[in-house]
Amino acid sequence: MSTPAPVVVSCGEPAGVGLEIAHTAFDALRAEVPMVLLADRRHVTAPVTEVTCPSQVTGQEPSLPLIHHDFQGDAVAGHPDPRNAQGVIDVIARGVDLVTSGAASALCTLPIHKKALKDGANFAYPGHTEYLAALAGVDHVVMMLACPDLRVVPVTIHIPVADVPTALTADLLEQTLRITEAALIRDFGIPAPRLAVAGLNPHAGEGGAMGTEEITLIAPVMEQLAQGGMTLFGPMSADTMFHAQARAGYDAAICMYHDQALIPIKTIDFAGGVNVTLGLPFIRTSPDHGTAFDIAGKGVADPTSTIAALRMAWDMAGKRQ
């Protein structure tokens, strides 16, 4: 079996912490994960080894390999320049091109700042994930947050809690379950994934006393998929799903809304969680934090999540290989 191609890293917002933690991550992983950064060399203060394509990365570089991409503005820590917005967008698209062509094995995206992209380039997407789905021509993708002790998938994501019952449909739940199962098999090497499905309401509705979505929507979808061979547990009361003994019984938790999924994983491993986009035709991971303008350039940003995201991307690439 051949070794996968390097992981390509898109620079994200150059005024944030992404570029500094990319170098810290490279220092931690240089003997473990071959990688190449897409960025403007003018924005990078630490030493780099310039290459023109990922195939030139040998793993023996003395400093972080970099493929140069022209940006219009300078990079001032903590102060995004609207002139750089289009460069940030174009670097993401260039990273996708490298992965889909096979030149890179996976894409790890460093944090972007959505307002800066909208202000500087009229960015039309809510965030990274939606833009990647559009570039890939995919209608539906799934967000997974993962750490060594837990994987969670929210069925509905960045919407008000009041809108969740309407947004939560049988079709959306079925797609989320199918995409999650397929990704666990292909990218995580789990031949028969076990999925724990949370209820929407307290105590999973308690037989209809606290809500009926579990009876009318969630359970019927689960029954249909279970008949097709999927291993599912639930609907489960969310407040009993995340202690250590419960987590040992499943491979991923499917949650009905954002905080139901993200509060447990950020409590268990706040610094080391990884954002993984499931359902794309390529591998994409990302650190689970933002641009952190308040600490950018101060040398105090925690690289743990970026290191974990790169490791996970490389491991997933090996599984696909």
TrEMBL record:
<feature type="binding site">
    <location>
        <position position="275"/>
    </location>
    <ligand>
        <name>substrate</name>
    </ligand>
</feature>
<dbReference type="GO" id="GO:0005737">
    <property type="term" value="C:cytoplasm"/>
</dbReference>
<comment type="function">
    <text>Catalyzes the NAD(P)-dependent oxidation of 4-(phosphooxy)-L-threonine (HTP) into 2-amino-3-oxo-4-(phosphooxy)butyric acid which spontaneously decarboxylates to form 3-amino-2-oxopropyl phosphate (AHAP).</text>
</comment>
<feature type="binding site">
    <location>
        <position position="128"/>
    </location>
    <ligand>
        <name>substrate</name>
    </ligand>
</feature>
<dbReference type="GO" id="GO:0050897">
    <property type="term" value="F:cobalt ion binding"/>
</dbReference>
<keyword id="KW-0664">Pyridoxine biosynthesis</keyword>
<keyword id="KW-0520">NAD</keyword>
<dbReference type="GO" id="GO:0000287">
    <property type="term" value="F:magnesium ion binding"/>
</dbReference>
<keyword id="KW-0460">Magnesium</keyword>
<comment type="pathway">
    <text>Cofactor biosynthesis; pyridoxine 5'-phosphate biosynthesis; pyridoxine 5'-phosphate from D-erythrose 4-phosphate: step 4/5.</text>
</comment>
<feature type="binding site">
    <location>
        <position position="158"/>
    </location>
    <ligand>
        <name>a divalent metal cation</name>
    </ligand>
</feature>
<feature type="binding site">
    <location>
        <position position="129"/>
    </location>
    <ligand>
        <name>substrate</name>
    </ligand>
</feature>
<comment type="subunit">
    <text>Homodimer.</text>
</comment>
<keyword id="KW-0963">Cytoplasm</keyword>
<feature type="binding site">
    <location>
        <position position="266"/>
    </location>
    <ligand>
        <name>substrate</name>
    </ligand>
</feature>
<dbReference type="GO" id="GO:0050570">
    <property type="term" value="F:4-hydroxythreonine-4-phosphate dehydrogenase activity"/>
</dbReference>
<dbReference type="GO" id="GO:0008615">
    <property type="term" value="P:pyridoxine biosynthetic process"/>
</dbReference>
<keyword id="KW-0521">NADP</keyword>
<dbReference type="GO" id="GO:0008270">
    <property type="term" value="F:zinc ion binding"/>
</dbReference>
<feature type="binding site">
    <location>
        <position position="258"/>
    </location>
    <ligand>
        <name>a divalent metal cation</name>
    </ligand>
</feature>
<dbReference type="InterPro" id="IPR005255">
    <property type="entry name" value="PdxA_fam"/>
</dbReference>
<dbReference type="Pfam" id="PF04166">
    <property type="entry name" value="PdxA"/>
</dbReference>
<keyword id="KW-0479">Metal-binding</keyword>
<comment type="similarity">
    <text>Belongs to the PdxA family.</text>
</comment>
<keyword id="KW-0862">Zinc</keyword>
<keyword id="KW-0560">Oxidoreductase</keyword>
<feature type="binding site">
    <location>
        <position position="203"/>
    </location>
    <ligand>
        <name>a divalent metal cation</name>
    </ligand>
</feature>
<feature type="binding site">
    <location>
        <position position="284"/>
    </location>
    <ligand>
        <name>substrate</name>
    </ligand>
</feature>
<protein>
    <recommendedName>
        <fullName>4-hydroxythreonine-4-phosphate dehydrogenase</fullName>
        <ecNumber>1.1.1.262</ecNumber>
    </recommendedName>
</protein>
<dbReference type="GO" id="GO:0051287">
    <property type="term" value="F:NAD binding"/>
</dbReference>
<dbReference type="GO" id="GO:0042823">
    <property type="term" value="P:pyridoxal phosphate biosynthetic process"/>
</dbReference>
<dbReference type="InterPro" id="IPR037510">
    <property type="entry name" value="PdxA"/>
</dbReference>
<keyword id="KW-0170">Cobalt</keyword>
